[in-house]
Description:
The complex is a heterodimer of chains A (375) and B (211). In chain A, 41% of the residues lie in helices and 25% in strands. With 375 residues, chain A is of the alpha+beta class. Chain A has two domains: 147 residues, no CATH class; 205 residues, no CATH class. Chain A is elongated and about 100 Å long. The mean pLDDT of chain A is 85. Chain B has 211 residues and is mainly α. Chain B has a domain of 146 residues. The model of chain B has no long low-confidence stretch (mean pLDDT 87). In chain B, helix 1 runs parallel beside helix 4, helix 4 packs antiparallel against helix 5 and helix 4 packs parallel to helix 6. In chain B, 66% of the residues lie in helices and 0% in strands. Chains A and B meet through helix 2 and strand 8 of A and helix 7, helix 8 and helix 9 of B.
Amino acid sequence: MITDSCYTFIILSVAGGLLTLLGSVGTFISIITQRRLDKLQDILEEFVSLSYRSETNLTGLMYNLIEKYQMHYMFPLTPRKMIFTYIDINIFFILVLWATTLLMQYEPPFSSIFILQIAPLLIGTIATIFFRHLLRATINLENPLLNTIVPAPEKLRNLSYLSRFVNLSVKSVLKQGRPTIFLSNFRDNPNVNGTSNLFKVSLKEELSFDNFFYYLCISNSTNPLFISFGDIKFHFSPDPITKKPVPVHRNINVPLGEFPYSRLPNQLIAHFLVFTNGEKHPLEFIYHLEPGTCFFSAKENPQVTVNHQILYTVEKSKLIINECQTCPPFFQELSHLFRLNNNRYYIHNPGKWKSEENKTQTNLLKLCQEKVFID
Amino acid sequence: MLDKHTNYTYDSFLFVKKLQEILSQPPCFENNTSYLDLGQVSSIDDTKLETTFGHIPPSDPLTKALGYILQSMRRKPFTLTKLGINELLKSYLYHINTDNQKVFTTCYLGCIEQIFLSCLSKNYPFTNLLWEYLSRCFNTVSEYLVAHKLEQGCQVFLDKVSCISKTAAQEGLHTSLIQYFLHNLEIWAREEGYIELADNAKNYRFNIETF
């Protein structure tokens, strides 16, 4: 039998011990987090500085770095669950012990002073719960405080995010992703509508860089045949079989629309402009597409330049063209439609666009609803 | 011999003429001869050793041509090497047929691999040019192979080229042209009905840069 007055002190000292343990768990977590942050920042720095070596082939290396980043970003599930359970049980006991000591010393009747007396306990409870919240956030890395230091792995494929880094060349990074324009022949049912042949236009990327606005104009020697513009964002859910997260994909195809043709052209030229959030001049890729058996593909590497003739800003998910001296056909006319809303639009008969009235023009604008696929 | 006329060593006309002379002879390969190659056979007995001892392998035009091309890679203009590779691949396409497609592809591509490996040496200044030229040639050659229904040859060609490309990717050379080539080959093969070849090409396309 322990005396009542002594028992209160024992309970309080147990609560104190538990609090110390909680504190040391915090220290333990912070040490682990710090190590992980160091690692992640090193990888991030390596990734950013890769962009200076555009003359070598870094596609494989970039892919590996993003995967490595993902690996360090994830904390293994079992120890994380164990730590969380420990913290939760610990805090629960501390609160129970505090409440018990209070109840043991409580003498009725109830008065208003009691509320004042209970206030430190309430503050202590709130502080402990807040501390728990903080620890959970630190171990997850997904919180606004740490996001600025170590971005989520998906951010490494996000061109708009990467373009915010001062010391990064978006051009070299995107070049390593090797975007190309590919036209595949698609035989439509000739009975349904007059056209018998359609070209499906798609953007192939060997590394799935996303979050940019694009403007594509495919023309033969004289006229533009196809125009497409829109915002490209990917969302990759974890692999359904292995359950591993997928920060970046290889060989991704983005359908951009389709256009009919009657006579097979000899050569097509594609102008592909890329607008990212952090830049003011777009990147321009020029592809010379040559016919294969039933498809058009680029046989040469594209010319990649920064187009200094066009000046743009991004305001409230709208792309505003401030200056445009020489630009691809229809660029100026369509610029009021440029919005960052994750949709891809196309016009398959740009010749008609000029002759139509404003009201019917929007009918010519089509939304490409085909999903992104891997091939 | 080219070496005797040192004044003419840079003459592309003489170089190509000499190569064409060599390569116009039909190539002969080890397995047609009685020459005993220890690397090729798994076991030998005394009688076999006795009977084949003293046999000399026939002179192979391919080795000779390869020697000239490798020589052109030492302190000589890139044009010569380019012409050499071109002549080698042309002679390959000229001599290949349905019966010999596997052996011929293996031997000729073996030469191409040696040329490629020697271009990786640090002293060779035109590595990028040579690799780009090779990538272009691969595209044309494979188109010819598929169009002429040499499926097995094309399969060997694809295996070899992917092996070379993997080395190239590890050395940091750009493989975008190879990716185009593999994609084109995949489409051509599918059109001709060679599903296995097309699937292999696709598989290689996904794997070239996975180290």
